[in-house]
Amino acid sequence: MTDPQKIFPSSLHLAAYLGDEASRAALGAAALAKFSLQSMLRGGDRHWRAAMKLLDRAASEDAACSVAELAFAAYGSNLDSNDAVNRLAKDAMEALRTWQKCRHSLDLSTRLKSTAEKFVLAVQVGGDYFDLSGFQTRAFGMVMGGCYSVIFAGENPRFVRWLGEAADYAHRLLKVDEAILVKEISAALMPSVRSKE
Q1: Would you say 135 and 75 are in contact if contact means Cβ atoms under 8 Å apart?
Q2: Which of 18, 62, 112, 192 would be a feasible disulfide site paired with 188, CB 3.0-4.6 Å?
Q3: At 62, phi and psi to the nearest 5?
Q4: What secondary structure does DSSP assign to 35-85, as a single string?
Q5: pLDDT band per the 50, 70, 90 thresholds, residue 132
């Protein structure tokens, strides 16, 4: 197993990997290549996994929320399901936004868990609304399922894989631009890096 401190001996190196331009300029040729969507896939490459070990769990949760926001915007621009299904998706996203503002609230966590789970299960194969859900809705359900899994992963290290899958679904299925995804994920992770300086 790779020691994260050997890959990222300082916060400057970690910030550069996550795309902070000032850090990249300060390190010059010593900076690792910036992470990409490819870095995050299938549990992530060794640099991505090392970075995730060094960051606070709240950072990965914020990254998942950013991915969900981008996916929801793409889904919302091309609604392909009936009003009841679209309402479930909107309710799940509202619950996620509310939870993110006060993530330590047990009530909001319970609401997010039930609301997101209800939407995800309803639009997946065999769900109550699967036959009424279009491709866009089912794709957003996959993204929301991945983001939900990151948030409720607890100590499960698979949250790294689930974050990568959610981002991949947003890109491949909902056509969210990779550069925008990477930028928003980086922005969500950077406060955790800054807190370590």
Answers
A1: no
A2: 62
A3: -65, -40
A4: P-HHHHGGG--HHHHHHHHHS-HHHHHHHHHHHHHHHHHHHHTT--S-HHH
A5: confident
